[in-house]
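Hi C.,

You asked whether I'd gotten around to modeling the 140-residue construct. I have! Everything is below, sequence then structure, no commentary in between.
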Amino acid sequence: MGKLTKLTPPTFDPESGTILEIINSGKSSIISSKDLRKSISSWDSDINEVKELESRFTEFYFNRKKPYLSKYLPYRNNRKNVFGKSKYAIDNNAIFFSLEFENMVHESWVNSVHLELRYKILQGKIIEMLSILETEINNY
């Protein structure tokens, strides 16, 4: 992970090669569990929903939040910098006590809540698929 990615909102990046191979091969019928076939066939749309929310969150970050903060925060003071410290000070009143900032915090919170919900749904589906697989393996 590069330094730039640490500054951006997090994303869920699953390895879907095997699942996509099963879907694209048209051989999902060899899977005896109807529930597992259903979970596998809906995987791509589940991931796409998460990716869409993540994309909106990332777009919000780069198009609204980061430009706003760059007006008031001397980024050079946040970490070791070969250029030294900035001569500009943080103006907390300008940053934190504005309707624009309040709205950005609220929008970030709403986006985070929606993403967390989608992540939990995906987590449940993954746990369910693993449970079905474990049962199938034990019954084999």
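If it helps when you're writing up: The chain has one domain: 31-139.

Thanks,
B.
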